[in-house]
Design a protein that fits this description.
The protein has 21 helices and two strands. It is mostly helical and about 450 residues long. The protein has a two-stranded antiparallel ribbon with strand order 1-2. Helix 3 crosses helix 4 and helix 5 packs antiparallel against helix 18. It is globular, with a radius of gyration of 25 Å. The two termini are about 30 Å apart.
Length: about 450
């Protein structure tokens, strides 16, 4: 406590308290900097498109270092975060896979062991009273995310297929194309969630003019990357869920009501004919590849050609294959070791849907645990958001589920975006908006002067 005493007109004022910064940086404060540096390394690694080529032992070592620094610097907070029931449930997923691996049922995927670190980091930094570290990490992640977007645009200008080729599981194909700033399918499907969240931040929180312009440029850049990447479902999802976000507004009175009614009337005309818009874009696009992609999206929206003339029909066959395999071993699944000796693994597990594939791999036991973790973490975060943030986060979460239903999607970039980056943005934006709306309070010194005047 700072024991300085202020005198004013002969009166003794109470001692001035030390600043929050000084109070919170006592004791093991020298561990805070290396702790945040380790967290930054882990988070940037998580969204690095080239990280699949790096040494995962190094990544695991930094994770352990971060946990050590966090535990020593803030012992009670760290263990309170770790021992929360929802966090323990998250640790249950790698534990289950480890048990499956010991039983010879699966080949334990190393990165699954480290996935709960994103849940743990979010709750550790969110639970701290000081938001400085959370702001710093969120800013760094978003900045790198945008850098990847810019790099991907340049890469797609040189090779329009680069993002799709990076989805290939053959290292000989992906290796020469991989780059820390060139996004593949993992980045693209993370970007859909991030872009929809930013659309909601602009629309719901109404930031200041320059911030709105900045976020607007972020949205345009995201849409450009998604369209250029030639992923049909990503194009469809980002437009559909952005429209969903725009269909619900906070209560602001007359002008907002008028805008809402106008949007509803426009939706009655636009939505049933949305496929025509994509056909129109396709007709006026010079690139043959882009024409095919927009036509494919139009086919999906119109219902015509949904199983013919696009890869949708192939995907449906792959989903059905996984479900048929699940029915042969519904409780524990068939595991993934069976695929090693198969001439055509896609005839056993389709590999294009987390929902269907996990049923085939891990059965009801694994799938129920997996979905319980996702829903529990969503519900826990959603309670911490304001009214606008809750609906927006629900839209992003539903978007994630839509994506993992039609694609593979349980990997570092998507989980980090869903359970760390987007929640942090919504929390920080909501807290700042609430703070700006609070009436200004005059200082104690000024109040005492008024009283003694």
């Amino acid at each position: 406590m700072n024991h300085k005493i202020l005198l004013y007109k002969g009166e003794v004022l109470p001692a001035v308290e030390e600043s929050k910064y000084i109070r919170q940086n006592k004791g093991f404060s020298f561990l805070h900097l290396p702790r945040e540096l380790c967290a930054l390394f882990v988070l940037l690694w998580g969204i690095n498109p080239e990280s699949f080529m790096y040494n995962w032992v190094m990544y695991a070592g930094v994770v352990v270092l971060w946990a050590g620094f966090a535990m020593i610097s803030e012992w009670q907070l760290f263990w309170k975060t770790v021992l929360h029931p929802a966090m323990l449930l998250s640790f249950g997923w790698p534990v289950l896979l480890a048990v499956y691996a010991v039983m010879g049922h699966v080949e334990f995927p190393f990165h699954h062991l480290l996935m709960p670190i994103f849940y743990l980091m979010f709750w550790f930094y969110y639970s701290r009273e000081d938001r400085f570290a959370l702001k710093l990490l969120t800013f760094a992640v978003v900045a790198y995310f945008l850098l990847i977007n810019v790099g991907t645009v340049f890469a797609l200008r040189q090779n329009p297929d680069v993002s799709r080729l990076l989805a290939n599981g053959d290292p000989e194909v992906t290796g020469p194309l991989a780059s820390p700033i060139t996004g593949g399918y993992q980045h693209i499907y993370s970007l859909t969630m991030f872009t929809v969240a930013v659309v909601g931040i602009i629309w719901y929180y109404r930031p200041k003019l320059f911030e709105t312009i900045g976020w607007g440029l972020v949205v345009l850049l995201g849409l450009l990357v998604i369209v250029m990447s030639n992923y049909s479902f990503a194009i469809l999802f980002v437009f559909a869920f952005s429209l969903l976000v725009l269909c619900r507004l906070p209560k602001h009175g007359g002008p907002t009501t008028a805008i809402l009614l106008a949007c509803c009337l426009a939706a009655l005309v636009v939505v049933p004919n949305l496929y025509r818009i994509f056909y129109f874009i396709a007709e006026n696009t010079d690139s043959l590849k882009m024409q095919l992609r927009f036509i494919e999206v139009g086919n999906l929206l119109s219902g015509s050609g949904i199983t013919e003339g696009s890869d949708a029909g192939t995907r449906i066959d792959l989903y059905t294959t996984s479900l048929k395999t699940f029915l042969t071993s519904p409780l524990f699944g068939v595991g993934d070791l069976i695929l090693k000796n198969a001439e055509n693994p896609r005839e056993i597990v389709g590999g294009h849907s987390i929902v269907c594939d996990y049923l085939a791999y891990y059965g009801l036991v694994g799938s129920i645990l997996f979905h319980s973790i996702l829903i529990t973490n969503f519900a826990r975060i959603e309670k911490r958001l304001d009214r606008r943030g809750r609906f927006l986060y629900l839209v992003v979460f539903v978007l994630y589920y839509a994506q993992i239903t039609v694609n593979a999607g349980y990997n570092e970039p998507l989980i980090e975006t869903l359970f760390l980056t987007v929640p942090s943005l919504l929390i920080l934006t909501g807290e700042r908006t609430a703070k700006e709306k609070q009436p200004a309070v005059s200082s104690r010194y000024l109040r005492l002067r008024k009283e003694n005047a």
